[in-house]
Amino acid sequence: MTESLRPSGAYESSPHQVNPEWPPPPPYTPAQASPSPSPSPSPSTRKRTRGPGALLAAVAIVAAAVGGGTAYGVQELTGDDTIASSSSTSTNVVPSSQKGTVSGVAEAVGPSIVEVDATSDAGSSTGSGVIITDDGEIVTNHHVVAGASSIKVRTSDGTTYTAKLVGTDSKKDLALIELEDASGLRAATLGDSDGVRVGDQVVAIGSPEGLSGTVTSGIVSALDRDVTVSTDESQGRQQGGGWPFEYGGREFNGDTGGSTTTYKAIQTDASLNPGNSGGALIDMNGDIIGINSAMYSAGGTGSSSSDAGSVGLGFAIPVNTVTSDLPALRSGSTT
């Protein structure tokens, strides 16, 4: 850069070039050897005045040379305490040293995922749930606890709690349960499913076949899939424990019956199996972006659960649907 910046009223050039990156001279005139009055300075010896604009320009030159790390120095000089960041929407759920890793997500979010065992007149079922408050509020699927006469919840450290049903919404396949005498639990962070994109990496945590804390990973395969599920608990737990659902005019895991509801779902290829229902679909920052609710099992009619398995076709209720429904669930809704 050959052009130097100078403030209004700049001095004339001298034979000696002044590097604009040098610090400014001291704001005083050195003492003269003789007490006699000094002559008026000539143009070649007139003191240069460096204003803040010139100093910032010099810093900007250095910043351009060494990269973004110098931005902090510019911030300090200008008094601006805001630095734009491309990751401004991320959270601190996963430590920075493990951001973007499946192991980091699993370690950070695993303690917020529970196993849910529900008993009803029709039998018992195992599903999953997500802790959303430290005193034991848990979100799960309606079909996991529908018609339950008793609910037991096991946390990641092996502690078993009795839970009560607070509210259900069969049209969204959501339910809220609450643990008795619980405190100090690790609540999950609910993210923003509107920001999810096809191809994003995701992690699923749940209790397939009663194997609590099982972690799988994959990507978001599609968005806004119309998934139809049964709202009648008597239709559930078919095909080795899979909840029947309908997609694209086809029924999977059995007959959905005459009472159904349809919602927009996130499709994922993360491995989901019976028992993952109600568990979490998580982004790589550790935020919950969906509640796993439907998965296709390969076993045919009458097969045992050992013949069923994930084929990379799973669906999750977007977390924004969950957050919008929470006030109704907390109020005791039983729709």
Describe the structure.
The protein has 335 residues and is an alpha+beta fold. Among the domains are: 1-33 and 49-79, no CATH class; 189-323, Trypsin-like serine proteases (Thrombin, subunit H). Helix content is 14%, strand content 31%. The protein has helices at 52-66, 71-78, 102-109, 142-145, 319-330; strands at residues 113-120, 123-131, 137-140, 150-154, 160-169, 174-179, 189-190, 201-206, 214-230, 245-247, 250-252, 260-268, 280-282, 287-297, 310-318. The strands form 2 sheets. The protein has a 6-stranded antiparallel barrel. A 6-stranded antiparallel beta barrel has the order 8-9-12-15-14-13. Residues 1-16, 30-34, 40-49, 54-89, 236-240 and 300-307 have low confidence and may be disordered.
Oligomer: single chain
**What is the mean predicted local confidence, pLDDT?**
76
How many extended strands? 15
Q: What gyration radius follows from the Cα positions, in whole Å?
A: 32 Å
- Spatial shape: globular
Unreliably modeled segments: 1-16, 30-34, 40-49, 54-89, 236-240, 300-307
How do the strands of the widest beta sheet line up side by side? 1-2-3-6-5-4
Distance between the termini: 71 Å
**Strand-residue proportion:** 25-35%
The topology string of helices and strands comes to HHHEEEHEEEEEEEEEEEEH
CATH superfamily of the domain at 189-323: Trypsin-like serine proteases
